[in-house]
Amino acid sequence: MSHWKKKAEVAIIGGGIMGVSTAYHLAKRGLSDVVILEKDLLAQASTGLSVGGIRQQFSHPANIRLSQESVKVFERFQEEFGVDIRFCQVGYLFLAEKQGTWIEFLANVETQRSLGVPVETLSPQEISRRWPYLNVSDVKGGTFGPRDGYADPYQAAMGYANSARRLGVRIEEKTKVIGIKLKSGRVQGIETSNGPIFSPVVVNAAGPWAGEVAKMAGLDLPVTPYRRQVFMTKPFAAIPKPVPMVIDQDMTFYFRGEDPGVLMGMSDPNEPSSFNLNIDRNFMEKVIEAAVHRAPVLGKAEILKGWAGLYEVTPDDNPIIGEVQELKGFFCAVGFSGHGFQQGPAVGLLLSQLILDDRTEFDIMPFAHDRFGKKGQEGERRVV
Ligand SMILES: Cc1cc2nc3c(=O)[nH]c(=O)nc-3n(C[C@H](O)[C@H](O)[C@H](O)COP(=O)(O)OP(=O)(O)OC[C@H]3O[C@@H](n4cnc5c(N)ncnc54)[C@H](O)[C@@H]3O)c2cc1C
């Protein structure tokens, strides 16, 4: 460990999209004495296991703003980072089955349009005309965001990591943070499996492990891991391209193209929180059932493989971003509740602004860590 440096201006715990984006933005502003500590390898946890969806169709205005900022970056990613993240802007088609969901969608669309998001509202007949393979018999309506889509989350994270490295950021893989040093209500640094690092600023970007990391600092952060399973079919050409990301909000089922097959997943509302990453064949059957219901032609597809990753969920499905008031120098970018990949570009930028300027270019108060239990706090309703 001859290269081990015991000091840094900023120590970032976690080498997923949040950690690498934050490091990149700090270094781009000239603060390059930054170290990322990653217990495993970069972008192998939630980021690498996610399905890469990128949308502006959120219910909460603050999430829409984060996504608008991020989409701009994804659209010019190759120019800035020299990496092709295969951003396929095939659109997101949200479907509502229940009348209440449809009414909520219409209210969301008003918010989205007021912020300049391009989004269409579609009748079942129009949906059927445009995507004839969808069963709309029980659908009340849908919303379609043509600039939404998906990209390769691993490549995006590596784009940030490599650019951050070029700007001087140190990345320590296979290095686990095991303690956080505190003194008089301030962080002083961290203890790792490879030795200590003294740092006046520590960033918790530990994804599903964010709650455990916060505990090392004596804090209780409401971020809970939940397994999410994804299944991919063998090559399947029976659905005409481009296939949008189709999200059935009431079934919490989704599918999209993943050349040459189709990728699909669903949430299980009955599954308790855990770090379990196994695939459950019984649940796979339920996902296939949902798929065949929504797109009957998928009955002819065969499953090639499946995998599971962890969502990092907060009680209101909104993230926690910013400095923890009672612990100076301890910043969080955690709890993205299933939509963190796409918010990574904006969150890294905002967190770098908070660390360097003590303010951000737009309001992130809805994401303050002390909001829970307070009145009038709206969470995110478009979660899958
Ligand atoms: C199946 C699935 C599908 C998803 N689909 C989407 C989607 O379509 N769109 C979208 O935007 N988001 C999606 N998400 C959510 C998204 O993946 C996450 O919100 C996002 O990747 C969070 O990034 P992160 O950097 O915070 O966490 P992570 O990528 O999990 O990174 C955290 C890192 O911290 C490291 N770490 C933890 N503890 C320590 C420690 N003590 N010491 C050192 N290192 C530590 C971990 O090893 C990990 O690499 C999906 C997630 C899953 C599981």
Notable characteristics:
single chain, alpha/beta, binds flavin-adenine dinucleotide
Sequence-ordered SSE layout with sheet pairings:
Blueprint: E1 10-13, H1 17-28, E2 34-37, H2 46-49, E3 53-54, H3 61-75, H4 77-81, E4 92-96, H5 99-114, E5 120-122, H6 124-130, E6 141-145, E7 149-150, H7 153-166, E8 170-172, E9 177-183, E10 186-192, E11 195-198, E12 201-204, H8 210-216, E13 224-233, E14 245-248, E15 253-258, E16 261-266, H9 281-294, E17 303-313, E18 320-323, E19 330-334, H10 344-357
Parallel strand pairs: 1-2, 1-12, 2-8, 4-14, 12-19
Antiparallel strand pairs: 3-7, 4-6, 5-6, 9-10, 10-11, 13-16, 13-17, 14-15, 15-16, 18-19
The site of flavin-adenine dinucleotide has 39 residues, from helix 1, helix 2, strand 13 and strand 17.
Short description:
With 384 residues, the chain is an alpha/beta fold. It has helices at residues 17-28, 46-49, 61-75, 77-81, 99-114, 124-130, 153-166, 210-216, 281-294, 344-357, and strands spanning 10-13, 34-37, 53-54, 92-96, 120-122, 141-145, 149-150, 170-172, 177-183, 186-192, 195-198, 201-204, 224-233, 245-248, 253-258, 261-266, 303-313, 320-323, 330-334.
